[in-house]
Amino acid sequence: MTEAKPATAARMYDYYLGGTHNFPADREAAEGMIAIYPQMLAVARANRAFLGRAVRFAAGQGVRQFLDIGSGIPTQGNVHEVADAVTDGARVVYVDIDPVAVAESLDLLEGNPRATAIHGDLKDPQPILDHPQVQELIDFNQPVALLLASVLHFVPDDFAFDAVARLVGTLPSGSLLAVSHGLSPEDLATEAEEAAAKGVYQRQTATPLTLRSRAGVALFFEGLDVVDPGLVWLPMWRPEPTDPQDFADDPRGAAMLAGAGRKP
Predict the structure, then answer these.
(1) Domain 41-188+210-262, second-level architecture
(2) How many CB atoms are closer than 10 A to CB 2?
(3) Is 241 exposed, middle or buried (0-12, 13-18, 19+ CB in 10 A)?
(4) Quick one: which H or E segment has residue 25?
(5) Residue 126: how many CB atoms within 10 A of its CB?
(6) For the chain, which residues make up each domain, given as ranges?
(7) What is the mean pLDDT of each run of 10 residues along the chain (264 residues)?
(8) Quick check: 62 and 172 in contact, CB under 8 A?
């Protein structure tokens, strides 16, 4: 019988952000990552800030629909909150593989007719696209912002590129793909650090870590028009004055890239 892996990336991320929707197994695994990468808490803050910037950018381009896959546990600056602050009538579907994340999101969204959360696995995108609540809220004849923030590095190569291609292929012209992604040793970390980080997720969660090179991350944008400033270090993608300043002196310390592409 396979040993249970009770920690999840979603609840670990909640812990990094100072949330309370996590269990001892999540805290233990998260502390293991912090021991390897002491900057993990700052990285989580920077990634959350990027998500907000991506939503504001998409809304500024006239996009009113958001599909956030790998959305995690609700916290401050959720997609529907950011979108509602800058545009009228935004519709949002949150998708996560963690039932706790979905349940917490549904509690937060109770009574909101323009936002919902569903259980889904990025490795198998068709059930997400076919889900009745997705079909009800998202009009695939109008532009959609597909948000994949800090999730693709939990999807193996055998699934990741095909999944993104299938999702983007469903979206109409004018849609946007926004991605943030951890980097492999050839770009940043040492091989020992990568092995240690992968070990935490392999042993303690059901979502092993798959870091990629800059060239590997760029492949997700094939066929799209990458918007300025291109694929850059996480804190450098369209920074705003209110962003966390943890990596102001060295954006490489965030250990992640971010970018967005528009479907022609």
Answers:
(1) 3-Layer(aba) Sandwich (3.40)
(2) 4
(3) exposed
(4) helix 24-36
(5) 12
(6) 41-188+210-262
(7) 65 91 91 87 96 98 97 92 95 96 94 97 97 98 98 95 98 98 65 47 58 94 98 97 94 93 98
(8) no
